[in-house]
Specification:
292 residues; Alpha-Beta Plaits; rod-shaped
């Protein structure tokens, strides 16, 4: 009978530990995902900004030397990520593929112009800066027109600011929720041992002596939960990097190291603090209050 009861107690203890580790791991995983978003908000914003293209259309009488000089000067400019020359023939071929028919046969001539597609660096993608860049390029005599999507740039700039703000706000809220959830899990685990705590106190054990094994046990559970969260986070990072290699997530080794270290430290710190206050609460309770 006693062995059966011991096995039952062990299963109950393991189940309690498992639930604490699982809750800590899930919460820290979500925090890690949010941390990843916060740390890569600028990179994501820059990625979308650098998809913006300025098309510089050239006059038909533009000389090859002038075109080559313009392309080289644009390629070397501080604001340029890439500058690609597109001949009118290549442009016609691309347009025919997009619409599914050869419009040159219908028109009898090629109405398109030679152009240079300029992709800007993210730091220069703003309405004011692009207007200035476009005006400088358009001032050249052999440039017919400088075209870009003004509404899209304004919308992109505005949305990037909004998204950045809401990601930070959501991170703060979820961090608070994470602390509360982990704290609740640990408090429930310690609640089941409240009579043991009070018994130890009644036989003369000091509060520090009583707290120590609980704190150490829950720190180990916090570390285990953090390791599980880090493994899950690593899997998600690998998946994102495989499907979106342009984000180059694994290139920022320092940032990723800080993220994983932060998840681990957070798991330990929250476990330590929550255990300390949970045990302190039951140590300060009167024996009669333990039943309520």
């Amino acid at each position: 009978m006693s062995k059966s009861f011991e096995r039952y107690q062990k299963r109950k203890l393991i189940s309690s530990y498992f639930s604490v580790v699982l809750s800590i791991g899930l919460v820290l995983f979500l925090l890690g995902i949010l941390g990843l978003l916060v740390l890569n908000t600028k990179k994501l914003a820059d990625h979308f900004k650098e998809q913006i293209t300025i098309s510089v259309f050239l006059k038909d009488n533009a000389k090859e030397v002038e075109i080559e000089q313009l392309q080289n000067s644009l390629a070397m400019a501080d604001y340029t990520k890439s500058a690609t020359y597109v001949s009118k023939e290549d442009a016609a071929e691309q347009h025919s593929e997009e619409i599914g028919e050869n419009f040159l046969e219908f028109l009898g001539y090629n109405p398109l112009k030679n152009s240079i597609d300029v992709q800007l660096k993210a730091d220069f993608v703003s309405t004011d800066q692009i207007e200035k860049i476009a005006a400088d390029i358009a001032a050249k005599g052999y440039v017919d027109e400088v075209s870009y999507d003004k509404p899209l740039i304004a919308l992109l700039t505005e949305n990037v600011k909004k998204i950045s703000f809401w990601i930070l706000a959501a991170s703060a809220v979820f961090t608070l929720i994470a602390v509360l959830l982990i704290n609740s899990s640990i408090r429930l685990s310690i609640y089941s041992k409240r009579f043991i705590i009070k018994t130890m106190q009644m036989v003369g054990a000091t509060k520090r002596f009583i707290r120590r094994p609980f704190i150490w046990t829950n720190i180990k559970l916090g570390m285990l939960g953090a390791v599980l969260a880090m493994i899950a986070l690593g899997v998600v990072l690998y998946y994102i990097n495989e499907n979106f290699p342009e984000l180059a997530l694994f290139q920022d080794v320092v940032v990723l190291s800080l993220l994983f270290a932060g998840v681990f430290v957070l798991g330990v710190v929250i476990s330590l603090v929550s255990t300390y206050f949970a045990t302190q609460r039951f140590l300060n309770l009167r024996t009669d209050d333990l039943y309520y």
